[in-house]
Write a structure and sequence with these properties.
Layout: H1 6-9, E1 28-31, H2 39-49, E2 56-63, E3 66-67, H3 68-78, E4 86-91, H4 96-109, E5 114-120, H5 124-137, E6 143-149, H6 163-180
Parallel strand pairs: 1-2, 1-5, 2-4, 5-6
Antiparallel strand pairs: 2-3
Helix pairs in contact: 4-5
């Protein structure tokens, strides 16, 4: 019976992973690294275009041929978005926690009071928790809203039907658990 009703209960396994505050006026958008399909940077470009933010700070570690942030910006520019909408923030961080440790001081340096954190929908709840914890550890930080970008492989209502989506859900739950126990 559970197997036959899976379309009703399996989507609920992903609801705790997703937290989308939606856009609002802010000083900047912050695009987290890790999206090899460009949906995050395109979401941020839309936020600039729609007047929510004046620019997007694009995070990205070093790759074999540059930094992910520079490649993401180049992709958005090829799609017709103006290069001046984006600021590259190359770094060596390889996790959301490391990105928070790098990005939050940069936001303070830029005098950002409010920002929109743009990441893939399945990553929104954990990314928000990580950044809020980083702000608490630093004694405060700018006001944040988390904004979800779609993902090429993850759809909440049918994630169990595709191998890549199943891997995404498993990995996000493992990372959520690891964060919860302090790993």
């Amino acid at each position: 019976m559970l197997f036959l009703a899976r379309a009703r209960w399996l989507p609920w396994l992903t609801y705790p992973l997703i937290h989308d505050d939606g856009p609002a006026k802010a000083d900047a958008a912050v695009v987290l690294a890790g999206d090899l399909n460009g949906f995050r940077v395109i979401k941020a470009a839309g936020l600039v275009r729609d007047g929510y933010v004046p620019y997007a700070l694009v995070s990205g570690p070093s790759l074999f041929d540059g930094h992910e942030s520079d490649l993401a910006i180049a992709y958005a520019v090829r799609l017709g978005f103006p290069a001046e909408w984006f600021v590259s923030l190359p770094h060596a961080g390889l996790s959301t926690k490391e990105e928070a440790r790098i990005i939050l001081p940069e936001l303070r340096r830029r005098n950002v009071k409010r920002f929109l954190l743009v990441t893939s929908d399945y990553h929104t709840a954990r990314a928000g928790r990580v950044f809020r914890a980083g702000e608490r550890a630093a004694g405060g930080g700018p006001e944040m809203r988390v904004v979800a970008a779609p993902d090429a492989y993850f759809q909440r209502e049918s994630w169990w039907c595709q191998r890549e989506a199943r891997k995404i859900v498993l990995m996000e739950w493992l990372k959520t658990f690891a964060d919860a126990v302090g790993m």
